[in-house]
Amino acid sequence: MQAQGFPGKSSVVAAYISRLRPPQGRITRRRKSGAPVTTVEVDTPLTPSRATWLVMRREATLNDDEKSQLARLQAQEGALAEAITLTQGFTALVRQRQPGQRAPWLERATASGLQAFKSLANGLRADSEAVKAGVTLLWSTGPVEGQINRLKMLQRQMYGRAGIG
Q: What pLDDT, in 10s, does the model give residues 68-84?
């Protein structure tokens, strides 16, 4: 804009645009005249991270706003709706320990037009016995993996390769 003759600074443009943009999150407005503080609650934007957790969470834990957001996402056409369906199917398969549903889910993932799910299905097929054990057995190596991760971090710190700070 300055190349086209605008004499102002970028901070002036940013301040003007911020007034045009709809508010996000929680906004506190203070008035100079000593009036009480006004707090306005507005909808938070749906980020990719929030959308992922919205799809992955159990439906019973969702509040009404989250349920309506999820319904709007599922109403989308094409790849997004298909990805949501496949993701929810996989999380149900793992959470409810349904080894019989593994093969049909793998077929649906392979038949989908989504490369990420095709790749996941191929990887799960390659390590089929481990996936079957993970879905059917009640025990997990998660605590052991956590301890190994902690020990490796300590070793990296001792040798100065942790990259912390």
A: 888 888 888 788 889 99
Domain residue limits, the chain: 44-75, 79-137
How far apart CA 155 and CA 118 sit, in angstroms, is: 37
**Percent helix, strand and coil across the chain, each rounded to 5?**
65, 5, 30
24 neighbors 42 (Cβ within 8 angstroms) = yes
| Backbone dihedral angles phi then psi of residue 123, each to the nearest 5 degrees | -65, -40
Distance in angstroms (rounded) separating the CA atoms of residues 138 and 135: 8
pTM of the entire structure? 0.58
What is the pLDDT, as a whole number, of residue 41? 54
Q: What distance in Å separates the CA atoms of residue 121 and residue 111, rounded to the nearest whole number?
A: 10
Q: Rounded distance, CA 91 to CA 85, Å?
A: 10
Residues facing residue 27 across a β-bridge:
40
